[in-house]
Amino acid sequence: MLGRRWVKRAGLGVGMTALAAGGYAAVEWDNLRVRYAAYQLRTAGTDEARAAAAATLAALGDAGLPALADCFHDGDAPACAAAAAAVQGRLAPLPPTDPAFAAAAARLRDSAGTFSPAGTDAALGLVPDLLRSSDPAVTVACRDLVRAGLADPAAGVKVRAVRLALRPGVDLAGDVVRLLDDPDPAVRSAAMLAVGPPAEGGPVIGDEELFRWLNDPDPGVRKLCESALRARGRSADEVAFGRRLCHPDPGERLKLLLDLRWADEGVKDVGPWLERLSRDPDPAVRAGAARVAAECRVMFAGWLDRLAASDPDPTVRQVAGYYRGVAGGLIPTGSVER
Fold this sequence. Notes:
This protein is an all-alpha fold.
C-alpha cells in the first residue's frame, strides 16, 4: 500500500513539474518571439517586413505591446508608423469595452514624455482609435498623449496635436493658446484655427488678446486672425483699429488716434479705444489719447485722472491735467477703467 501511495504521489509530482515546465517553456517561447519580432521591426529594410514584424507583436497581445511601445522611443519614422498601424489593427475589431484599449493607452501614457518626435507623432495617430473606448482612464491617457504632442519640439507633431486638442474628451483648447507664440508659422496657424473662431462655451482667448496677431510676421496667420475676429462679430473698422492698436510701430498707433478722431457714425463709441491707448508704452500716444478724448467730447473715466496724477512722463501728466480741466460737460461713453 505504501509503495502504491508513493508511486501515485511521485507521479503527481512529476505531472505538476511537467506542467510547470511546460508553462515556463511557453512563456519563454513567447518572450523569444517578442524579442525576435522586435529585432525584425528595428532592422527591417522594407515596409512589408516592418508591417509583418509589427503584426506579429500585436498578435502576441499584452506580451507584444511593450515592444511596440518601445519602438516609439528609438524607432525611425517608418518603424513607428508600422507599430502604430499594428496597434490600430489589433483594436479595430474590438468592442469599446475591451480591456485592450486601456492596456494600450496606459502603456503609451506612461512613456509619452520620452518618445522621439516620430514616436509621438505615431502615438498621436492612435488617439482617435483609443477614444472609441468607454473607459475614463483611456480618455485621461489620450489627453496626456496630446499634451505631450503640444510640447514636442517638432512643428509637425505640434500641428497634429493641435488638431486633436479640441476633440470631445480631450478638450485642451486652453493648452493650445500658448502655441500662438510658436516660432513656426504652421503651428501658429493651426493654433489660430483652433482657438480663434467662436467656440461653444465661450472663447479661451479674448478678442483684444487676439489683436496682436493682426500684425503677425506671417500673412497667413494675419488673415486667419482677421477671419476669426470677423466670425466673432467684430466689424471691419474694429479689426482695422485692433491692427493699429497693437502695431509695434508707435507711428501706427498714433494714426489710430486720427482714425478715432474722425471716425464716422459706424463707430459707436471711441471711448474704450482711447482708454486702451492711454495705457500705451509710448508717451506721445498716451498724451494724444487725452487730447482726442477732449476733442471727441468723451466723458472721461478714471484713466484721465491716472494720467494726470501718476503717469511716469511729465509731459503726459501736464497734457492730461490740462484736458482734465476742460472736461466738464462732456457726453458719457462706455469707456471703462481697467
